[in-house]
């Protein structure tokens, strides 16, 4: 009978984003105001600047999202907001804003874990997605393998012990002078390079482990660059980028296949900013085809931070009547 419209709000890092999602499947509007240009000159996100930018933009981003959906607050069933993990100042802007809007509209507030949000981006482009499923979540701050048995029912099988995949990509890109955020620049540079020009290490850890470690490969690349610099040699940036990307993708693919073997999960999904990587998508497409595993991933815009994925996670929270309390707080270190 009545449509369930959820407004999703995301402000955990450097994007101010809001989206209106109808019945968990129709994305009626999606606004992303990116601060990348502002932070680019510092080579990374400056937290204090990020929270100020969120304060400046949140209200207009939400208004634009509502206008795009031809709605008013009264048409919404609930408001979903990221409350962690992320930068505390940035999270607080979204949480305080969402609370005020939901309270004034007399509708439920839905508190969303940003990492769950990333995974739920998969339900936006495929609402028929079936459990059980395995998710490879790879972002700027996290690298997780998660086994889902149902909505909100999951088990973390492995996670990174040091750097996240995206973090390693960003740091190497910065040293190569490629730009921020590094992932897309590494991917672009790698297109012109030889992925076997350098043999960078692949940390597999103990046999059977589903954990990751990317600080070793990052250091190996940085050492290669430093020693070339000291010898006055020039490196082929494209070859370094291609070999480094290959090393990261190799480990992600091998660990994901091991997790598929262990769980016998019939479906694999990708999530997080690094899930936009074309090499990772291609390698996993081939590997899952060979094994008869269903594989899907969101379009790039739904891989990086966005409000639509928060609305998607919020929709299932709303169905479960799992509302957030009015004293919901930001939790910067929230995990899965
Ligand atoms: O999920 P996300 O937008 O923010 C976090 O929650 O961290 O992920 C950002 C990360 C950055 O490290 C960025 O370099 C990486 O995702 N990234 C990529 C690509 N696009 C973004 N990494 C590899 N290939 C890409 N095409
Ligand atoms: Zn994210």
TrEMBL record:
It holds the Pfam family TsaD. Residues 27-311 form the Gcp-like domain. GO terms for molecular function: hydrolase activity; iron ion binding; tRNA N(6)-L-threonylcarbamoyladenine synthase activity. It catalyses: L-threonylcarbamoyladenylate + adenosine(37) in tRNA = N(6)-L-threonylcarbamoyladenosine(37) in tRNA + AMP + H(+). GO terms for cellular component: cytoplasm. Fe cation binds at residues 114, 118, 305. Its cofactor is Fe(2+). One of its GO terms (biological process) is tRNA threonylcarbamoyladenosine modification. This is tRNA N6-adenosine threonylcarbamoyltransferase. It comes from Desulfitobacterium dehalogenans (strain ATCC 51507 / DSM 9161 / JW/IU-DC1). The lineage of its organism: Bacteria, Bacillati, Bacillota, Clostridia, Eubacteriales. The gene is tsaD.
């Amino acid at each position: 009978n009545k449509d369930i419209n959820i407004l999703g709000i995301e402000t955990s890092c450097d994007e101010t984003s809001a989206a209106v999602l109808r019945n968990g499947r129709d994305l009626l509007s999606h606004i992303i105001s990116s601060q990348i240009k502002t932070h680019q000159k510092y080579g990374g996100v400056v937290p204090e600047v990020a929270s100020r930018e969120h304060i400046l933009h949140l209200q207009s981003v939400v208004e634009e999202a509502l206008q795009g959906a031809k709605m008013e607050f009264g048409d919404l069933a609930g408001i979903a907001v990221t409350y962690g993990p992320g930068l505390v100042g940035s999270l607080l802007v979204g949480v305080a804003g969402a609370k005020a809007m939901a309270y004034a509209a007399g509708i439920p507030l839905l508190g969303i874990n940003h990492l769950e949000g990333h995974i739920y981006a998969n339900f936006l482009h495929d609402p028929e997605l079936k459990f059980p499923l395995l998710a490879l979540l790879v972002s700027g701050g996290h690298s997780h393998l998660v086994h889902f048995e149902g909505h909100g029912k999951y088990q973390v099988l492995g996670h990174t012990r040091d750097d996240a995949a995206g973090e390693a990509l960003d740091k190497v890109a910065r040293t190569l002078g490629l730009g921020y955020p590094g992932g897309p620049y590494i991917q672009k540079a790698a297109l012109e390079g030889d992925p076997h020009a350098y043999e960078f290490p692949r940390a597999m850890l103990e046999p059977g482990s589903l954990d990751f470690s990317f600080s070793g490969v990052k250091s190996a690349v940085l050492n290669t660059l430093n020693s070339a610099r000291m010898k006055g040699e020039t490196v082929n940036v494209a070859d370094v980028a291609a070999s480094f990307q290959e090393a990261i993708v190799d480990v992600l693919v091998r660990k994901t296949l091991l997790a598929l073997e262990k769980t016998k999960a019939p479906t694999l999904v990708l999530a997080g900013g690094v899930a936009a990587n074309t090499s990772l998508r291609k390698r996993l497409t081939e590997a899952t085809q060979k094994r008869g595993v269903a594989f899907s991933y969101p379009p790039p815009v739904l891989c990086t931070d966005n409000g639509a994925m928060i609305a998607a996670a919020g929709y299932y929270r709303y169905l479960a009547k799992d509302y957030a309390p009015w004293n919901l707080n930001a939790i910067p270190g929230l995990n899965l």
